[in-house]
Amino acid sequence: YIFLTLINIYLSMSEKYKVIFIVGPPGVGKNTQCDKLVEKYKFVHFGAGDLLRAESKKDTEDGKLVNSLISQGKIVPVKITCGLIKKAMDESGKDKIFLIDGYPRNQENIDGWNEVFGDNYKLVTSIILGCDEAALEKRLLERAKSSGRSDDKSEVIKKRFKVYVEQSQPIEAKLKQMGPFIEVQATGSIDEVFGKITAELDEKLKQ
Ligand code: C5P
Ligand code: MG
Q1: What are 26-68's pLDDT values in tens digits?
Q2: pLDDT digits (tens, 9 = 90+) for 124-143
Q3: Ligand 1 site, residue 76, Cβ cutoff 6 A
Q4: Distance in Å, CA 149 to ligand 1 centroid
Q5: 55, 70, 165, best to mutate for ligand 1 pocket (most atoms within 8 Å of CB)
Q6: pLDDT digits over 157-181, tens only?
Q7: Contact 72, 162 (CB under 8 A)
Q8: Using an 8 Å Cβ cutoff, are 186 and 130 in contact?
Q9: 3-state secondary structure at position 102
Q10: 151: part of which helix (H) or strand (E)?
Q11: Looking at residue 4, what is its pLDDT?
Q12: Residues lining ligand 2 (ion), CB within 5 A?
């Protein structure tokens, strides 16, 4: 019995976290596509932005810092973000495929991830969504009417685009080197975009 327990502990330690990153500019529809992906594939979905927004409501040092950075459209220190993601993953158990949206957002996000996970994870694929800025701004301003998000305001939206172009877009090339990837222009309807993603994802999941 002790032997079996030890084997089980060993297996759970050696099992890798299975991960899918989904990235793209603000307003590209990451959340919308994630909802549909979760429905179809039963992935466990964590939005980095969602985890941070929850953290920002806490009356703690971290909470206050996160709240201030989000409302300026700035990127939160990776120690906080990656810590929240890891905690959420560990609470779900390793046997799932984790769909992590809005991460990594900059080089620090990648370095912090590598520090925490090392080679203890398998990148099933990255999903990289693209769209032109004019269409995105229109979508975000539409969303602003009901999202209640402190950063869905015209001036913060501009700032978030700037951060995306300067920090997030360059690391898409790094993601492509880290493992398999799917690159989709998210300009059509929700279902069109979903169709393009799933066509490639089905292949990746077989490998
Ligand atoms: O992905 P989402 O648009 O929900 O992110 C909202 C905000 O959360 C970002 O503008 C940024 O301030 C913060 N964030 C971050 N690091 C991430 C993801 C989100 O700092 N990896
Ligand atoms: Mg989101």
Answers
A1: 999 999 999 999 999 999 999 999 999 999 999 999 999 999 9
A2: 999 999 999 889 999 999 99
A3: yes
A4: 12
A5: 70
A6: 999 999 999 999 999 999 999 999 9
A7: no
A8: yes
A9: coil
A10: none
A11: 85
A12: 31, 47, 49
CB burial of residue 25 (10 Å; 0-12, 13-18, 19+):
buried
Exposure on the CB side of residue 74, measured as CA atoms within 13 A: 8
What is the 206 CA–ligand 1 centroid distance (Å)?
31
Contacting residues for 40 by C-beta, under 8 A, at least 6 apart: 198
Cβ within 8 Å of residue 19, ≥6 positions away: 97, 98, 100, 121, 122, 123, 124
Determine whether the shortest distance from the Cβ of 103 to ligand 1 is under 6 A: yes
Read off the pLDDT band of 85 (50, 70, 90): very high
pTM higher than 0.85 for the full model? Answer: yes
Ligand 1: atom nearest CA of 104 is 21
Residue 49 has which token pair? Answer: 């932005």
Ligand nearest to the CA of 66: 1
**Which residue blocks in 15-165 are alpha helix, DSSP H?**
30-41, 48-56, 61-71, 78-92, 107-117, 133-147, 154-163
195 CA → ligand 1 middle, Å:
26
Give the Cβ contact number of residue 140 at 10 Å: 23
State which ligand 1 atom lies nearest to the alpha carbon of 109. Answer: 21
pLDDT at 14 over 90: no
